[in-house]
Queue: 3 jobs
Job 1
Amino acid sequence: MKKHTPKIIPLPTKAQVLEFILESPGKVGKREISRAFNLNAEQRPMLRQIMKDLEQEGSIQRGHKRKVHKPGLLPEVAVLEITGADAEGELLARPLNWHPEDPEARDMPPPRIYVLPVRQGLSAVGIGDKILARLQATGDYSYEARVLKALASAPARVLGMLDTGVNGLLLRPTDKRDKQDYLVARGDAGTAGPGDLVEAELLPGRRFGLRQAKVTENLGSMGNPKAVSLVAIHSHGIPCQFAQDALEQAEQAKGVTELGSRADLRDIPLVTIDGSDARDFDDAVWAEPSEDGGWHCLVAIADVAHYVQTGDALDQTAYERGNSVYFPDRVVPMLPEKLSNGWCSLRPDEDRPCMAVHFWIDAEGRKIRHQFVRGLMRSVARLTYEQVQAAIEGVPDLAVAPLMDSVIGPLYGAYKALRAYRDERGALNIEIPERKVLIGEKGEVLGIVPRTSLDSHKLIEEFMVTANVCAAETLEQHHTPCMYRVHDEPTLERVDSLREFLKSLNLTIATGALRAQNFNSVLARVKDTPNEHLVNQVVLRTQAQALYGPENRGHFGLGLHRYAHFTSPIRRYADLLVHRALIRALKLGPEGLQDEQGNELEAIGEHISMTERRAAAAERDAIERYTTQFLADRVGATFAGRISSATRFGLFVELDETGASGLVPISTLPDDFYVHEEARHALVGRKGRREFQVGQRVTVIMRQADPVTGGMLFELVPNGTMRPAARPPKSSPFDRSFGDDDEGDSIERPSSLGRKPRGERVEEEEGPRKHFTPLRVGGVKNKAFNKTGGKKLERAGKKRVVRFEPGTTGRRKKDAGTTES
């Protein structure tokens, strides 16, 4: 009988093994690879060596139970640190070890991780805690984390107001995302008492079920009107104390007394145009008609680089702060007042050193050429926006009347040309109303009014934008490092999401590569219609976020190929860097950009982008708190408003009267199962097809306004707020938007907007309504939910059903283990 010879299976190559791993939908081990290639026991040691080589090369990464996967993915179980919460109150985390052995992954930001509610029997977790968690990918570069074990305590410090408790003092956190109170023993309060705003450090252990804290700093009475901005400063970590050596350097600063090599601009009638409450004037403007029918314009900016030089004490504190922060009752400046309101302020009839740019434009507003100089100037007048606007409209006051022919008329003529060119190139025109808090002499809130947009504002904006373009072009021409202001075009994913949303409104947007004009076309079609507010909001959320960096990627929102901030070195460190770079490129003095700093522009850009976001968040926080304080005595009143955000746990409504934003809990909506249709930004009733969509007008009753946290709760007034829902398109994600300042290039996303969705629908059924009580959502208690509505989770595929059952405790009871996608 012929002996059977076993068939020899060739060993796969390294490339074949890698291809199999990369194309596998999940993580694989040696067993799966051996089966795929029909390998026998004798060949497995050779396979082990191939996999070891791939791992050492960084082509694959080893995970849980020795499974491997393509690099960049997180393992199934990892140690995470909870870093914050999104606008919906869901906890966010990041891995403690972010691919330390993978050089390419180290340069990538970690994926976004959402922490699921802690199951019953485990300790609650909060911001600052370290956890061991099981991870499940839920979409493109996002994960859900299920807490297995809490590993460390929450952050060392907490800001809050002391209140009287049964067993001592209670510390109520000012952060509305932190719903737990802390116990402060009488001996641990120091000089602070009930009603005081304090900073406290957390102590180990619990008493009477509460975590313990010890007061480390008494910041004064919470009843003090200035406490509102103080809370925002401390909550967001805004540096507010200058180092002594920086203050001493500012005191020793002196102005320029001799012209030297500077250009003499003192005979040119430059004027500053600012808000009526401004105290620092860092830019001045002038214009005259040119012989070819165009305009010769001049923008002069305070020469901050003369006073703040690379590496000195003032430079270090300016870098740390990154920018000034503006609150309704105070300013936290980037530079000490001696400079910001003194030597670097272009006061009338006083000689001031400046960096200036002449630029010439044609009658259509297109720039023909430009020239930078380092000069000495003398402003002829400090004007306000309101004064200039009145003059433009033909009613100048006594201060402006003598300047009409020589200054105001030419400025307005040049502005009209620049504005025409802006419209031609198609700068993005999103209209989102802003609000201004009016503060009295004693710090009290007098009112909250819409922020007006005048032609005089736009005049300064267009002059500043053109000067910024000139700065970027000059630095490129001289091959000098430049800190660009970058605003990328929206991602294809976001545009596709917008397209799906617009389809539900019978609107379309162009396909292929988009320009800002394409978005403007959509906005023009909804102008003065019921959907105007809604579409503006969604278009805003589609945009990327503006940032700083040494790589030029253009400015999509302004329709410009290159852009850099030059015009506000008093209040933005980025502008100071651009001034130094121009001085170096044009050989205008010894204060130019140093090689060491030029080589660090990428890291500096990341830092000042962070400080800008930090400042914007603190400013929004202060406005929200002032607004809540202003409305606190109107609980029970009825207000008109519109839905500004639809989330899985309710609706955010923005009031017409003040712009205040508060939550309408989903438990208070009319009886139904509510599906969160993320692509349509709506909650839709499953049975009755009742719909609540962003932009929809509603009437609400204020049920709660907490001045300590700045949070407000509303309830919809029945009838007249629902409409039949159209068939929803597929869900698709929206993320953050881009950022807008006085140069019009940095619109910030409203703080009430929800997090990036992960493609899952949520259906919610409500039990009988009683009164509000805290309920944890994503690890953070949320007062918006109903005491009698226990939440029972059932998961099936991509759909999560949340039922409210009468008579239960109001907490999430069970999680079946499937995840959102």
Job 2
Amino acid sequence: MKKSYLITAIFTGAAVTNISTLNYFAATASASMQGYQSERKIRNEVPHKPDSDNVFEKPEGIYRIRMLLAQAEPPQTKGKFETKIKDFYYSLQFGTFRKKENAERFLQKLPPEIRESAFIYVTDKGYYTVRYGLFDSYRLLKDVQEKIPINSIVVKTDVSKIVKEKIVVQEEVKKEKPKKELKTKPPKEEKIVEEEVKLVPEFEEEEISIFEEEKPKIPLYKKIAGAIFFIPAYMLTHKQRGFWGKVEFSYKMEKYKDPYRTTSRNTFRQYYELNYEGYIYSPRLLTYKLGGNFSREDSKIKYGSSSSDSTSKLLGYNLELNFLKASRFPINIFAKKTESPLWYTYYDRTSYIERKTDSYGLYGNVRFAVSNFNYGYKHEKSKSTGFDFWEDRKTDEYLLSYGRSLFNKNLNISFKKNVDDYTQQYSSVTRKVYQDINNLNLNYRWRISKKSNLTADARYYSNSYTDLKDYTGNINYAWNPSDRLNANFGFSATRSEGNNYNLTFFSFNENLNYKLSENWNLSHNLILFTSSGTNNDQKLVNTGVNISYHKTVNEKLSFYGGTGVSGQAETGNINRVGGTVSLNGGLIKRFDFLNSSFSLNGSTSQYKSSKDDRSNTYNLNERFVAYLANNLQFEHYINYYYQDSQYYRTTGGFSETNYDNLETSNSLRYHKMLGWKGTLNANLGVKYYYGKKRAERFYPYGSMAVNYKFTRNLLYKLSINLHRDSYYNTNYATLNTGINYKYRSLYFKWDLQYYYEDNDNYGKRHNYVTTFKVYRVF
């Protein structure tokens, strides 16, 4: 049911049953809650002892107390204070009991200064209540209630129903006491706590909390109708987090300029958000979150000499219902609507898209001792509109998953279905897409022993738009019989089907590593591969052996190297036999001078086959790092790569590659703490690229970032980036700066973004974006 329907139903019910009916249920429910807590919650103040001159007897057998705490003028006489007898007076009710004995016990345990003014009152239903005082003035009684250290509720008292045989105050009006006895001093805090513990007796079975007074006579059908509509509304008043939200105002100025045009946009945005979190009956039964938001955006855009104004009013809401969240089968239902403007700022332009999205769905799970089942559904409908773009999209998502974990075994199965139907238009090009995507995954883990593990994975994927279907499976077994030997065995299978093709792959992999000694290591690998399908019938066997050496001479010097030999045989579309020889090595050296380090490594490989295939590769890397000062680091590196290869084609001839590339870089990096409130980071360097069939390229760059917190609530940030690319003959610059400030509950933000680009094709382009924002979260 939508929120608007629920609100309409509640207010319709209120109109049918009239306000008096709702007041009846509200008073009953409120008194029930207050009365239940009245014997348990104790305040931290003790009232002043009443003056005995204000005690009078009226009528016979009934004693009445006048508390003149809020009286503006003192009485003219010190005699008995008499007033006209009324049918009803106001009193404070402390508790309600089924048995008279329990009411008397409760009365006897009250503090003496309160007990002398309390009495027992019999309600219409025969319950015994303990009440305090008889007052003509409701306001005066409220003042007295604030000074009583026991929770209570205000009720009307019929003097004819007071239990006469129970002495309420004192049997006689006491004589005036000496002034020194009338002086009351508040007891120490420790004693108050001790008395508070004794104020409420244990009557769990007998206590009743009812607001007893004259009730309006309401027909039975109105009571039933009122209960049907009022109870759900009353339940919503149980708050968990309560009300919270956000109010935000922002002003944004943007300007773009190039040799051909100038565009500017000024926008004022208002955003209001209000949420409420509560529960019904108990947080374990149902918790909920209701929220809504509204935003208004007024923009003025100028294109050269022309201008236009626009106003966007966007509404949103969200509803979340969480049923039985602490149980083994929680259920969550949600509905959400968002309307938001999306601005994208680039070097050359600012793009605007207004997106409206409605979504609803549910998700939940069922938990067992060793397994878990999850499910979910989401429907989403969105519409996006921009300057030269619009999109209308509908999406349905389904999710099912199952997990089971038992000792050393773990199983997870998940299925996700996504149905996407959308239409897009860019300028005059329209694109319609409908796709049904299914994704099924299975994962299995089995720890067979401390030395072996088995893992298995399976996946199914399909897409109706591309007419693609994929089936994939993998099994891997890891075996570690000792610290020196470890092995992995894996098998995988893949089946892929499309519009114009179908492929099937099977492969087996074996990797074995054996530590010959502290410095020497031997490894072996084996690959068995077969494929079939559209133009892809092939079988391959590849195996190889590698031996490596690593030596740490001391803490500052280490070197390593290795060599390997592998061979492979292929049959199918191409029949050939070939082999590869590889060699690699390197060293790492650290120096005390400038706390620097130097590393150098290289590798080479050669491949030849029976089809005159060849491949020769060389790779060399050098790196040097030094700290010129505590916060200043210098870094230099060189990378060189060369490849000369040719491979036989099934259609005949060879495909050849002859390529080399040199890349070098030098940079300075600076980092400094600005006291304990800020940081400064800077980077300055240049890169150089050169190679065969590649143009020479210089790339100088520089950047700086500052963050400084002047106070706990005031933060300043600044970042600058500059670089030039000689290949495109382009200069770039960006600047970002801003201030974040918090004053009590208010947040202030100012941001400035500047983009600059200069190249031969477009000339100089500038883009400025400035934003002022103030918001408050409550």
Job 3
Amino acid sequence: MQINPRLGLRGKTAIALSGVLLVVLLVSSYVSYWQSKVIATEIEQGRLMEFRDQILRSLNSEKNNLLALRDVPPVAAIIRARDHQGIDPVGGDSLQQWRQRLAVIFSAMLGNHAQYFQISYLDSHGHELVRVGRAASGAITVVAEQALQSNAAERYVSETMRLKNGQIYTSDITLYREHGEIQLPHVPVLRIATPVYRDDHDLTGLVVIHLYSDMLFANLHSDPGGVRHHVVNDRGYYIRHDNGAMEFAWELGDGQLRLDSIEPGLAAMARSRDDYIGFHAVHDELDGFTKVYFSPLEPRRYWLLTLHIPEDLAYAEIGLAHRRMLVISVVMCLMLFLLTLWLVSRRIVVPIVQLAAATRALKAGDAGVRVDTTLVTDELQTLYEAINDYATQQQQANHMLQLEVELQTKRLAAVIDHILDGIITIAADGTIRAFNPAACRIFGYSSEEVIGQNVNILMPEPYHSEHDSYLRHYASTGVRGVIGIGREVTGRRKDGAVFPMELAVSELSMDGTHAFVGIIRDISERKSFEQKIVEEKDQLAAVINHVIDGIITISATGTIESFNPAARKIFAYSNDEVMGRNVKMLMAEPYHSEHDGYLQQHAMTDEKHVIGIGREVTGRRKDGSTFPMELAVSEVMINHVRHYVGIIRDISERKCAEEKIRKMAHYDHLTGLPNRVLFNDRLGRSLMLAARNRLQISLLFIDLDGFKAVNDTLGHEAGDRLLQSVAARLSDGVREVDTVARLGGDEFAVILFDVKGPINTSRKAGLIIDAVSAPYPEIGEGGMIGCSIGIALFPDDATDRQGLLSKADAAMYTVKKNGKNHFHFYHDGVGDEC
């Protein structure tokens, strides 16, 4: 018997469909592969551009730091001190002090920024004034003054000097040199510098930060045989390369190692393009570059960031995914072919599809769906009838359930609308879905104003800013912060007012989506009442037991009724020693004797002498010692009985501090002589007294000769001792009515009151020169100095303080010009020697 197999229409359709699916899957897999390669290439280019942006962000951050360093007070103070013989005229501090302060600031900046190699401050001639650097070991060192060098020949110095105030010059990356020699090991550095201007717009210097360029490009990694990143300057030389011998070739004597000779194709494209990435078929690698324009003032200057990735690394994951996709495609097509053929051969495709559709509709809640039982027979017909019966029963049950839900919804809505607590429903993204009347009353919004808005509009900071991130964190981790836990938080009303409230949040699921219900209760009144109770209780306890002031209550007759811990500490008495005794035991004379009479007078006349008025009086401790104190007395009536409350504060330390501050403000800390402030005050008073009594005053302006040499050779400590000795000799040589002052540095001044003519002044000036010029055994042989004295007379030369100072100073400079170590009088604008 011969069997002729026939393939029906459904079988042919199944075979054709499987073939088409196979072709489509194969084509789509290859298309996806090439698209993935394009995407991978774009990703690598994006990473390269991100490196560029990171470098520019880092540079901008360093430039902001540079401008901050330029504006620190020591920068301007150093220039002022250099312009005024080493003394800052604003604060009186020396040039060395300001240099040390600036070095401390530079050291702190280096300590906080590991990418900084050096920070220096140069004057307008390129000479270093302050330099702080980082040694190879990482230690931060301040370069000694004698080791500072001139960088006037450096290009970055001359270029920075041409800039306007606030502009910044960015140098090329070069190897660091010390005194013109490249240092070993090599340290590639980038310098950013900004000019420093006076208020009169004169250039005074520049501040420079030397950056480690390797740290600027720290994210550009290179692996042998793998991904390689190089950096090339705008002249084509490598400044970063995985082969160290290629770096800084022009500085090390090999001018041939350039991008043009190593990678001519990439160099040619870089001359006409800012960005590029593409596959290099010869090298089997992905090549690319991007330009970093690092100097806004010179827009043509750039660094070229280059990228080289071998093909097997660039597209390794894509190739593996492609092979897997081919295998999966073949398996899927084979399975689909067999399944389709089997379903068609059994002739149940259509009934099963209809049955599945009806089942899905029922699952989705469509109880009105029905299937046609006349299209099937046998067991399928029974199944169709059962589906129709179930749909009918489900439809009836749904109708009853809907009625019940509507009734319950109305009841719940009535409860929500009339409950005193606010109820707010929000979606998973924080959007408000429901807002009951109590919530409207609490927050001051209508429901129309908030529905659809983010619930954080009802929150003050920090809850306002943190709320969305909290929802995202809960959605991703499931960690609960407030859900299911009632707590007290702060809300914000429509008018911006904040108020305390109790919040309870619960989570629910509606229609397959998550939502949250918050129940809010305004507890403003309760909190206010609680806070008032707490405050009153705390205030009472703090006043009585913990206030730093002594608090004493006494009766109308002066008997001590209470004595708090601060009072016990101030007067050194215990409670048992003072309770029931007269309060005048704590008073020094004359208050001790007058106190009882004052109380009697107040009781009879109600005249208030100290009550309600704070004043300073003298107290007496247990050991009999007296001290200044502030006293404030109040009168209180308790059960119609008069009592007094005294608040006492020991102001001994404040009085001592005031005296110390007064002395610090008017006396030189080194010599103990009056400083410039007190000198000006005494000179003004002397001039007024002399004018009133027609007396003569001589002002001697003294400048030490040779002091700088002593300071430089023997050190600052010897210089300080010398200044103290000079001050002692000057003070010993004048009368009590005269004034000797130190104006700053090695400058002194003497006011000779009622001198009886220039001859006496000349004699006194000569004695001063002899005293100052005498040897100083305490200093040693190198401590020989002299002094130059300029003299102005009142009222002959000037009648006011400023004029007298100016003319004495002019006479002193005449001495300086004519050989030093003698004195001159000022007459008619010139100094005449005596």
